Amino acid sequence: MSRTASQALWSLALAVLLLVGCADAPPSAVEVPGISYIKEKRRTPADVARISEAFNADESHGNDVIFRTTEKERAGFYYNFRLDFTPPKDGRIILEVVRSETAPTERYDFALNFQPKGWLGEYIIGLTGPESGAANWRPIAWRLSIVDATGKVLASQHSFLWSKDKDPLPPAKL
């Protein structure tokens, strides 16, 4: 094969790869909104402090909606997340956490009375106080769900180790 033919063949192969790689995925029948992302991290009181608190003693949440298992405690294990949709005001956030292989699943339930402000706002859930665990503790598995007033799951996301064999999310207790 001549050099020109070889170059033409490689160019054709590259063009086909580029076209296939840039093709749009087929649209799904129904677009289901959900949870954009979840970031999990252990935080100290200094990590969650804001600059405005240096000028006045009041804690400021800024654009975020923050839930803590022990309201006055700030150190703990936090989940930051954003939703792709506007949840109902009577909805709930359910966080389920597995601490160890032998421990039962812990369930934390928060009311969706407020929404983050602006495009930078997030929902933040902090396992604080006794629920924060030891300084190096991380949950083995977790699941975060958004449910409506009837307990219907609107969106849910879970960690890799969350078992699909676990019982379905029971209705929210209002």
Give an account of the 3D structure.
The chain has 174 residues and is an alpha+beta fold. The chain has one domain (32-158): Immunoglobulin-like. The protein is 16% helix and 30% strand. The protein has helices at residues 3-22, 45-48, 52-55, and strands at residues 35-43, 65-68, 76-83, 92-98, 106-111, 123-128, 141-147, 153-158. The strands form 2 sheets. A 4-stranded mixed β-sheet has the order 1-3-6-2. A 4-stranded antiparallel β-sheet has the order 5-4-7-8, with no helix packed on it. A hairpin with a 5-residue loop joins strand 7 (141-147) and strand 8. The longest helix has 20 residues, at 3-22. The chain is elongated, with a radius of gyration of 23 Å. 18% of the residues are buried.
Short description:
By secondary structure, the chain is α+β, with helices and mostly antiparallel strands.
Count of the domains: 1
Please tell me the CATH architecture by its name: Sandwich
Strand order of the largest sheet: 1-3-6-2
Distance between the termini: 75 Å
Output mean pLDDT.
Answer: 79
Structural class: alpha+beta
Q: Can you summarize the main beta sheet?
A: 4 strands, mixed
Radius of gyration equals: 23 Å
Q: Which stretches of 5+ consecutive residues score pLDDT under 50?
A: 23-31
Order of helices and strands: HEHHEEEEEEE
**Name of the CATH first level:** Mainly Beta
User: How would you sum up the global shape?
Assistant: elongated
The helical percent reads 10-25%
Strand content: 25-35%
> Count of DSSP helices?
3
Looking at the structure, the CATH topology is Immunoglobulin-like
Number of strands: 8
